[in-house]
Design a protein that fits this description.
This protein has two domains: 130 residues, Acyl-CoA thioester hydrolase/BAAT N-terminal domain (Immunoglobulin-like), CATH 2.60.40; 271 residues, 3-Layer(aba) Sandwich (Rossmann fold). Helix content is 23%, strand content 27%. An eight-stranded mixed beta sheet has the order 10-11-13-12-14-15-18-19, with helices on both faces. Strands 2-9-8-4-5-7 form a six-stranded mixed beta sheet. A three-stranded antiparallel beta sheet has the order 1-3-6, with no helix packed on it. The chain is globular and about 70 Å long. 44% of the residues are buried. InterPro entries: AB_hydrolase_fold (IPR029058), Acyl-CoA_thioEstase_long-chain (IPR016662), BAAT_C (IPR014940), Thio_Ohase/aa_AcTrfase (IPR006862), Thio_Ohase/BAAT_N (IPR042490). Pfam families: BAAT_C (PF08840), Bile_Hydr_Trans (PF04775). Belongs to the C/M/P thioester hydrolase family. It comes from Seriola lalandi dorsalis.
Length: 432
Amino acid sequence: SATQQPLLLSVQPSRGLLDEKFIVLVQSVPPGLQLTVHALHQCEDGHSWEAFGHYTADASGNVNVSEDPSLGGTYSGVEPMGLLWSLTPIPGSKPGLRMRKMNVQTPMEVTISVYQGHQTEGFMDQVALAGVVVERWYMAPGVRRIPITEDGLTATLFLPPGPGPFPGLLDLWGGEGKLLEYRAALFASHGIASLALDYLTPEITMETGKMVDNKYVEAAYRVLQQHPQVLDSRIAMLGLSLGASVTLKMAAYSQVVKLRCAVCVSGSHVQPVDGFLKELLNAGKTRYNEENQVMFRELLLPIPTDPSLKVDVGRLQCPLLLVVGEDDQNWPAYESAMDMKEMMERAGNSHLLTVLSYLNAGHLIEPPYTPHFEQFLLCLVFAVMALWGGETLAHSRAQEDAWRKTLVFLRENLYISCVTRELDETLRLSSA
């Protein structure tokens, strides 16, 4: 029978960075055999996630997940990384789960297995034909993780391997708070010294009950700027959701924070100009849909015309990259981007603006090959089921594209000085 063949399963690379592609190859099976390639991951919170595709071995008895179409499962068609981006909680899991890496010093482990036939359930109850454990790292070998507590900060600095000095990046997440390190660790793996900052639930707020103000973010910027291994004139800021509001505020008005460039993911410039977090969070009232899911996007709509209610992006003097999902159900990121574009055109600084807008992508545009969450339980003051939007395939494509283009944008603005640009241009013209 088919099971007696010495089936070979290989995943290359079996250990790599989270944003690297891998190749899954099944060899030495009878031609035409139906197989299910399955991925299983147990999250740090104990919940298990799975993804699987249905394949048919070719005439040589091989399946190459990077080239062969999945005929069904949690994804279909030729999807080299479908086994990761289509991960969903295993049947029977509680609703509203979200998968995130909390300890970046250990890898995300995924077990890739092969089963005979086109299976859709009960994977735990049967024996796989073969299995391989794959490691996905946010921290490349040699990246250093340094907790920062000076100046009352709750932050972690990630330094790339090598002596440096490196360009720097201040990394801000959204309205959920907590110190999230995985994106900063990944940026450091790509050569950018990155400071992950908790500005919503830092220890100082937990102790005093008071929200931080812009001085807290400026203190974080200074820590990065004054670090001996950071290039003080080449610092970027990146914010997602609420973090984007803070990023825009600092880029436009701060006397301390002088950015080389800024990236805002699923954010908005709509906020009281003379306030900070407290005023921003009090600016609106929450709305629920019929399924009792919370939606924040209408809080800021229609986009106000009153200049005191939005950041004057016409003041920006550094390149700005906006990443938006057009099916964002949580925040009016697309509408905000269009208004910012108009404001910058009027002010004559629209040459600084790049907008990446993705059809059918939702709010949480994260590093690539990570699962898409249309909704999950958001713990703010109390737990609410938040709706984020997006269709899984389109959203996954957006994550991959946006991540690649964000890295290019950061490299162009943080590494390549004007001198090299001019030199490149001269060389290009002279060789033409």
